[in-house]
Amino acid sequence: MKITTKLWIGLGVLILLSPLGLLLPEHFKTGAAWGEWGIDEIKKLVGYVPKGLEKLAPLWNAPLPDYAFKGWEGKGLSYLSLAYIISAVVGIAVTVGASLLVGKLLAKKGK
Amino acid sequence: MHIPDGYLGPATSGFFYVAMLPIWTVAARIVKKTLKAKQVPLLAIGAAFSFVIMMFNIPIPGGSTGHAVGGVLVAILLGPWAACIAITVALVVQALLFGDGGITAIGANCFNMAFVLPFVGYYLYKALSRNAPLGSNRRVWAAGAAGYIGINVAAFLAGVEFGLQPLLHHTADGQALYSPYGLNIAVPAMVGQHLLIFGWVEAIVTALVIKFLQKQAPELLQEGRG
């Protein structure tokens, strides 16, 4: 088997395992990553919401915010895990597509 | 380490976009000269690996979370300039599709994770593994150490970027306008977590994959890339 085939398989395994990145923090009841708090969390932490932050934070409306589907917030962990896996598949597909394109545009031919 | 929108003031966000432009330009130029057509799939695999490994949030019980970046590994395999491009692709996809890292902070996040992290890691790996045979354990240790230091230097920079905000932007009565914690809190928080936990994750991931490749495809570890 070619090494690239093995590495693609490895990526597939990582996609299937990716919900661990959701479930473990959930299990240990951890908060957001340092410096990645939402508006409510920041208010709790420092007692006020910085004005510029409040204005800029909602700047971008991502289609799959936090690797989840909009409107699925109340659903159980199994739904969130499914959304996480789908996000990983979509994200990898787009990342691979974009880097193949960039690579093809840049790479030397015939070697 | 994905700085969101609203945490950096316009001066900092703008500064890092401007700083990244020549870096991206040089990266494109160098990769154009050095990347072979048959390495393109590896570039895509590297970008995808970095993307997915960052989804593995590791909890610090009762505290926060963090993750590895995988960037030092990509740099060891493809050189630091190609790694810069691969990680940039992953970070831009994360910001645009998943809101992980801000749009305004893409410059800063790329500077930390797609530039400093792979470059520090790559040159440290090169120095530590000099003259070591491709299959040697020294290469595995060197890769782990490079991953550990690379991600910690990146975390330190993110801490400085966060920590400068209340100095740069605040109201007359002292309230921060953007990220609220100063250097005395932001730098120890970012570096501490990465020294204690996430740096080791980056180290182990980097070392294990290098060990795997020594057995499966040692030709990928040959020098003279990038």
Structural summary, described in words:
The complex is a heterodimer of chains A (111) and B (226). By secondary structure, chain A is an all-alpha fold. Chain A has one domain (3-106). Chain A has helices at 3-17, 20-27, 39-46, 51-56, 77-106. The longest helix of chain A is centred in the last third of the chain and has 30 residues, at 77-106. The mean pLDDT of chain A is 94. Chain B has 226 residues and is mostly helical. Chain B is 69% helix and 2% strand. Chain B has a two-stranded antiparallel ribbon. In chain B, α1 packs across α4, α2 packs across α4 (80-98) and α3 runs antiparallel to α4. Chain B is globular and about 60 Å long. The mean pLDDT of chain B is 96. Chains A and B meet through α1, α2, α3, α4 and α5 of A and α1, α2, β1, β2 and α4 of B.
N-to-C series of helices and strands of chain A: HHHHH
Q: Assembly state here?
A: heterodimer
Distance between the termini of chain B: 26 Å
CATH class membership of chain B = Mainly Alpha
Uncertain residue ranges of chain B:
none
Q: What is the number of beta strands of chain A?
A: 0
Query: Can you give the mean pLDDT of chain B?
Result: 96
Tell me the domain tally of chain A.
1
Return the CATH topology of chain B: Arp2/3 complex 21 kDa subunit ARPC3
Radius of gyration of chain B: 18 Å
Secondary structure: helix percent of chain A = 55-70%
Question: What is the overall number of helices of chain A?
Answer: 5
Q: Per DSSP, what share of the residues of chain B sits in E-state strands of 2 or more residues?
A: under 5%
Write the layout of secondary structure elements.
The complex is a heterodimer of chains A (111) and B (226).
Chain A (H helix, E strand, L loop, with lengths): L2 H15 L2 H8 L11 H8 L4 H6 L20 H30 L5
Chain B lengths: L9 H25 L5 H14 L4 E2 L5 E2 L4 H8 L1 H19 L7 H23 L8 H32 L14 H34 L10
Antiparallel strand pairs in B: 1-2
Helix pairs in contact in B: 1-4, 1-5, 2-3, 2-4, 3-4, 3-5, 3-6, 4-5, 5-6, 6-7
